[in-house]
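User: Can you predict the 3D structure for this chain?
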Amino acid sequence: MTTPTHHMLRTAVDVSQLRALSSTQGRFIAAILCFVIFTVAKIAPNRPLVQDNDKLEPDAEAVQSFSDRANCQIVYVLGVEGTSHHGVTPILETLARQQIDPATDSPYDVSYSNEHLRAALFGFHKETRTIDNESMVRQTIRKICPHNGQKHVIMEDASFPCGTDDDPRSYRIHRQWWWKQSTMEQIAMSDTALNHPTNLDLFYKAFSPYADIKFVVLHRPFIETIASRAEYDAIVKQHSVVIRGFMLLIRRFLDSHPVDNYTGNRLWTLICVEKIGNKYYGEDEERMNSSRQR
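Assistant: Here is the predicted structure, written as C-alpha cells:
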C-alpha cells in the first residue's frame, strides 16, 4: 500500500506491518502518518520567528536553527493514561522508519523515547533547568537533530498523568497524592498538574521555533480508559476523577492551539483507538491474536 506524496512525504508502507488491521483501518493509520511525518516543506513567510520575545531571542544561532526546522520534527502521541499509547506509538514508529527523504533518497532518522528530549521535557537524568530554558532547548535540539543532512523524527508518548507518586524517575513534578481527593477542575487548574509530566504550553512555545511539532491525540472509550489503569489511584472513583482532570487539561491546551504558529497548518490530529481495534475480526479471537503475533 502506498500513500500519495504529500509535500516532503514519500510513503511506502509495507502492508505486513498492518496485518492486525482491516484495509479501512490501514488507510486510517496511513492518513495519520501523512499528517504527522514531515508534511510541511516551507515555513510560512508571514509568520514571526519568535512569539514570546521574553523567552527565545532570534540571535544568529537561533536563526540557523530555525532555518533547519524542516529537518527536525517532534511527534508527541498525546493522551491520558490508559488510551493505548503502547499500542499506537509502535505502529507510527514502524511506519515512520519506512519513510524516504525524496531529496536525498535516505531514510529518516527516527528516535522513540529519546533520552535527551525526555530530560528536557520531564527532568529525567536530574535535569533541573526549566523546560523553557533557552540554553537547554538549544542544546537539546542540537543533540536530537544534529546537522548531518538527515531528517530527524523524534517520537514521545508519555501519558498524562504518568508514573506513580513515588516513581524513582526524576520528574520535575511527580504524580500528586492529593489529586485523588480533588475535583477535576481543581486538578486541571493546579500548577502541579499543569507541569506533569511536562508543561504542554511551555514545551510548544520553547521548542516550536526549532522543530516542527505535531501532536497525535488518542481517544479511547472512557470505561476502557479507566479500567486499564484503575489501580494507580487506589480505587476506581478516585482514578476516574484524576483522569477527567487531565482530560480537561489536555482539552484546554488543544482548544488554544488549533494550528502551528509558524506554518498555519493543523497542530494536532485525533486517533479514535477503537477504530484500530479488533472489530475487523468480529468474534474470531483466535485469528485476531494470531495476526497480532505475526
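Confidence is low (pLDDT under 50) at residues 1-24, 39-60. The longest helix spans residues 236-256.
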